[in-house]
Predict the structure.
Amino acid sequence: MKRNTLVVGVVLLILATFAWAGWANWEYRKQAAEKLLASAAKGELVSTAAGDVPQYASPLKGKAAPNFALEDLSGHKVSLSSYKGRAVLLNFWATWCGPCKIETPWLVELRNQYASQGFEVLGISTEGDDLAKDDKTGRDKQKADVAKFVQQEHMPYPVLIDGDSISQTYGGLDAMPTSFFVDRSGTVIAAQMGISSKDDIEANIRKALGATK
Amino acid sequence: MKGGRWVGAIVLVLGALAGHGQAPMSDSPGRSIAGGAAVVYQYPEQVTVSAGKPSPVALHFRVGQGLHINSHTPRQEELIPTTFSIPEGSGVQLVKVDYPTGNDFTLPLDPSTKLSVYTGEFTILTRIVALPGNHLVEAKLRYQACDRSVCLPPKTITVPIDVIGQ
């Protein structure tokens, strides 16, 4: 009887040790995951109600949009700072991005509708090809592909190339399309990753036009 | 007897706690869809083939849930196809690749455009010729993935295969 009690006691002790180790491991992994998320400078997609498009929590929201200078298809340098005083939609897209093709006609319509109120779209081609700076052949082909896309989609607004060179300053740009809505003072008032609806885009444009410091 | 039931109940509870600690972390709100590879190579890790002779090898992959990648023959010219390759100098030559036929897929907001994609598990059939010996081949799979609202940049993953030519 005494021996049985001893055996049961030892078994319970071993199981208790395993249970504690399991709980400690789970806590450690939970904290490690939280630390990883917190240390990332990138925006994260936050789940909302089932069926909704996840909201993009950009770290740039409420902050000044980082300035940049990129070439357009004619080789002219275009800088964001030259648009101060106007509301701007920075639309990062790629030729291989199906959702980008879907939202482009909406952007064209909204740009034409709100241009007279001081609104512009800057389409920033971000092909993600990791081309070397001296890869002239690769860059020329990329430029030709972008120009063909622009022509097909009848984009009336400036289209800038080499968006990959500024992707880190805009949070990493893990997916396309990604849009940043910048108000007249140069502050990012909203960010959107992925395609939602023309109404959502218009609501953010109106916010950017109306928000003044 | 009563004591035995108590012991049994305690054992069950402790066992459940120990098991829970080893369970994979569930998706927490805020996890980026761009985190991790959209396509994972599953198997085989190692194959033994007759050295110097073309040998068939089936490579098994899995596309992440909710995602799709373009097939090897996408219907639109600007889309990036899925391609498999073996680097030169690896001791193994890729002589033939048979890609699976893509499935038809349409985006909810553009039902008129039919895409050719892979989803879930797919298999690429290859024929390889290996030199005699053990070759740790770092083959490559290039693909471009999307879900219903976003697209991820094109990506190349390493497909590690230990090829033994006998």
About this structure: Chain A touches chain B through 46 residues (CB under 8 Å).
